[in-house]
Design a protein that fits this description.
ABC-type transporter activity; AAA+_ATPase; Rossmann fold; four-stranded antiparallel β-sheet; ABC_transpr_TagH-like; 10 strands; ATP binding; 239 residues; six-stranded mixed β-sheet; ABC transporter; alpha/beta
Length: 239
């Protein structure tokens, strides 16, 4: 059975040469709002996730909320295995697909078609399987002839369409999305939301970070709130 379990997970970033630049500039690079700890010498530690534990199982659709820099993106990347935990244990059972920052995993010099193949191969498809997915992705993203052009020529909305179409074409057991519905036209956002409803109805675990609480309420059945590296589960009926 698909599951995603965090046991006392902490994610800390050491920042070196703290005296050579402003601390503010270094924290911008880390882009988290966790606790800042000092140490002797020139090392500053930012704790983005602070000893958090939870268990997700099949059927869980989780909305992540919190102010900018609260740790939502760090949590999603730790869920995906992109960031290793500094301490604690992450137990992940099931295939994972992600839709994170625009352009992640894409080569801007390659065409849309070439990037579709590239991303599907990275997700574990064979060449034949990846090719069989292209018509569905073409139809959903509605980019038409732009798919033959380099991705660097795309707007942010076009890039989001392509990434979302690829990520949701394979129906992974665990899907992680980081604030992607704010980009693109209203018609595509409605189309993407419908696909998410269909995906959730027949899938396992879905985690979605967003500032749009009404969208989270429509898509999710659980809600986690992040504050300064700590995690709290709220009653979704109250948001």
């Amino acid at each position: 059975m698909t599951s995603l379990i965090f046991k006392d997970v902490t994610m800390s970033y050491p920042i070196y040469n703290a005296h050579s630049q402003s601390l503010r500039n270094q924290l911008v690079r880390v882009s988290t709002g966790g606790r800042i700890g000092g140490s002797r010498g020139e090392v500053v530690t930012v704790t983005a996730l602070d000893n958090i534990s939870f268990e997700l199982k099949s059927g869980d659709a989780v909305g992540l909320i919190g102010h900018n820099g609260a740790g939502k993106s760090t949590l999603l990347r730790t869920m995906a295995g992109i960031y290793p935990a500094s301490s604690g244990e992450v137990i992940r059972v099931g295939s994972v697909a992600t839709v994170f920052e625009l352009g992640a995993g894409m080569d801007p010099e390659l065409s849309g078609y070439e990037n579709i193949m590239r991303m599907l191969l990275l997700l574990g498809h064979s060449v034949a399987s990846a090719k069989s997915k292209i018509p569905e992705i073409e139809e959903f993203c509605e980019l038409g002839d732009f798919l033959v052009l380099p991705v660097r020529t795309y707007s942010s909305g076009m890039t989001m369409r392509l990434m979302f179409a690829v990520a949701t074409s394979m129906r992974p057991e665990i899907l992680l999305i980081d604030e992607m519905f704010g980009t693109g036209d209203a018609a595509f956002q409605e189309k993407a939301e419908k696909r998410m409803h269909d995906w959730i109805a027949g899938s396992d675990i879905f985690v979605f970070a967003s500032h749009d609480r009404s969208l989270i309420k429509r898509l999710c059945n659980r809600i986690f709130r992040l504050e300064h590296g700590k995690i709290y589960e709220d009653d979704i009926a109250t948001i």
